[in-house]
Specification:
The protein has 421 residues and is of the alpha+beta class. The chain has three domains: 94 residues, GIY-YIG endonuclease; 163 residues, no CATH class; 145 residues, UvrC, RNAse H endonuclease domain (Nucleotidyltransferase, domain 5, 2-Layer Sandwich), CATH 3.30.420.340. A hairpin with a 5-residue loop joins strand 1 and strand 2. The protein is globular and about 80 Å long.
């Protein structure tokens, strides 16, 4: 598709979900937008390669048509996008990010279900090892963790629910002096822990949450209206008023924070993955290397990796460039780990040259930068790829600082254990 093709579409300036279609009308990519008109326009800019990467450039070369569905809010667009990705499994959504690293919303199968956020790689494992508690429903994938967290804040204000911080668990609460959890005290949990709500009423709330995540708003509104009228008929006016407030909140969703995050994500194109590397030792002893990861502009601690440096012939020296080479070689033997868009190493020209040597050896085309420090170990300059520095300075510095912290922590832990190679 070209910018001339876009002119034939009368795209609305409102939230919704859009679809790029291939020559056989197959769905290539699904996305959500604060403004369908402005978001789709961004795919036809000259800097698409630097802003969104080669994968979406290839998708645009294959796309021949564009469809869309409007929603009443950005929050609903986020939920609907996840439903459509799950339903159609578009190739350019699943290729854009490792499937196993998507965020999922899990509703547990128990008397008082919890709502939890997990990585998709963890859901099956959790189901296998969890004793007495399984997943009743799983929603997603949600590609951007920050947006999901903002969405859950909004949803929880409309439909308070129990999570794993609701303590004590219902079966463990003191029947004489029940104590509400913190979230119950501020209105984000219906008070399961304190016995404020019974099993039947709480399950009705969970049913409403499920309808919302299934993008079934019409049925959800009908359900709440029915509850409101029933309460009013029985002269339970306080309960009826609560349902009226729920309806109002649902029809007037306050998703300003979500809109802001969505706009910032598009402007900064934060679908990039940055891996930062650092080495730590004491005079060549207890030498370790680490990898930290930033995705969608956020630290992904579950993807951090530690490396005990082996050295040549089992001998470890103080040569940080050799140690860095070892870490990078070992990292890229793991094809199952998603490859980065940017690599950030700690150090100066020597470190960036060492990393270049490894990337050339492995025939990898990945943007490379290094963070040069002053005498106080504060970042004073970023060397390397100019575009990466321009677009991702803050994320690079954050990833680098986190790598230094993580390396020092790991080194001290092993040194405390009397670690020797």
């Amino acid at each position: 598709m070209t910018s001339q093709d876009l002119q034939k579409y009368d795209l609305p300036d409102c939230p919704g979900v859009y679809y790029f279609l291939g020559p056989k009308k197959e769905i290539l990519y699904v996305g959500k937008a604060t403004s369908l008109k402005e978001r789709t326009k961004s795919y036809f800019t000259k800097d698409l390669m630097s802003a969104r990467g080669p994968l979406l450039v290839k998708m645009m070369q294959e796309a021949v048509d564009l469809k869309w569905t409007t929603t009443d809010s950005v929050l609903e667009a986020l939920i609907y996008e996840a439903n459509q990705i799950k339903k159609h499994n578009p190739p350019y959504n699943t290729a854009e990010k490792d499937n196993k690293s998507f965020n999922m919303v899990v509703i547990t199968d128990e008397d008082f279900p919890q709502l939890l956020v997990m990585r998709s790689r963890s859901v099956a494992h959790w189901n296998a090892i969890s004793k007495g508690m399984k997943a009743k429903a799983v929603y997603g994938p949600f590609p951007h963790g920050g947006e999901l967290r903002e969405a859950l804040k909004i949803i929880r204000r409309i439909f308070p629910y129990r999570d794993n911080k609701c303590t004590p668990a219902p079966e463990q609460r003191d029947p004489i002096h029940p104590r509400p959890c913190f979230n119950a005290q501020i209105g984000l949990c219906p008070g399961v822990c304190a016995g404020w709500v019974g099993k039947t009423e709480y399950r009705k709330q969970v049913k409403r949450i499920r309808m919302f995540f299934e993008a079934n708003k019409a049925e959800l509104v009908k359900d709440i209206e029915g509850e409101m009228k029933a309460c009013a008929k029985e002269q339970k006016f306080e309960e009826a008023n609560a349902f009226k407030g729920m309806l109002y909140a649902l029809e007037h969703i306050q998703d300003i924070a979500l809109i802001k995050r969505d706009i910032e994500r598009v402007e900064s194109a934060d679908t990039v993955r940055i891996e930062a590397y650092d080495i730590a030792h004491m005079s060549g002893k207890s030498t370790v290397g680490v990898m930290t990861v930033i995705e969608d502009g956020e630290l992904e601690k579950s993807q951090y990796r530690k490396f005990r440096i082996r050295g040549k012939a089992g001998k470890v020296g103080v040569d940080d460039t050799s140690n860095l080479k070892e870490v990078l070689r070992r990292r890229f033997t793991h094809a199952e780990w998603q490859f980065p868009n940017i690599i950030a190493v700690d150090g100066g020209v020597a470190q960036i040259n060492a990393a270049k040597e490894i990337l050339k050896e492995l025939d990898l085309d990945i943007a490379l930068v290094s963070v040069l420090k002053d005498t106080r170990h504060k970042a004073k300059e970023i060397l390397g790829d100019e575009q990466a520095k321009k677009d991702w300075e803050k994320s690079i510095l954050l990833a680098n600082a986190e790598a230094h912290r993580f390396a020092i922590t790991y080194h001290r832990k092993l040194r405390g254990k009397g670690f020797r190679i």
